[in-house]
Design goal:
The protein is an alpha+beta fold. 36% of the residues lie in helices and 11% in strands. It has one domain (19-85). It is built from three helices and two strands. Strands 1-2 form a two-stranded antiparallel sheet. The radius of gyration is 15 Å and the shape is flat.
Length: 87
């Protein structure tokens, strides 16, 4: 599909309490009415405020945060999230 894309394989270990968050560009590239993007810093801030919360709640806060940020501009792209936590 994307012949020019080069991907590598890797491996990591999630320790107890670690979290892996995967998301599409529809999250961080969402713009507010002034055209400013949501960006990674806001995602990190929400993640920090959710420390110790279940994945479902973290996901809800991220989606809610980006929807509030976009306001009447709405979401212009798809939004996909996956959160994995090791308990």
């Amino acid at each position: 599909m994307l012949a020019e894309l080069t991907l590598g394989a890797g491996e990591t270990k999630l320790d107890q309490g670690d979290m892996l968050v995967l998301y599409t560009d529809g999250l961080y590239e969402t713009t507010n009415p002034d055209g400013e993007e949501f960006e990674a810093d806001r995602i990190v801030d929400i993640m920090r405020s959710c420390r110790g919360k279940p994945s479902r709640e973290i996901m809800a806060r991220l989606v809610s945060g980006v929807r509030v940020y976009a306001a009447e501009a709405g979401l212009a792209d798809d939004l996909t999230l996956m959160i994995v936590q090791r308990s």
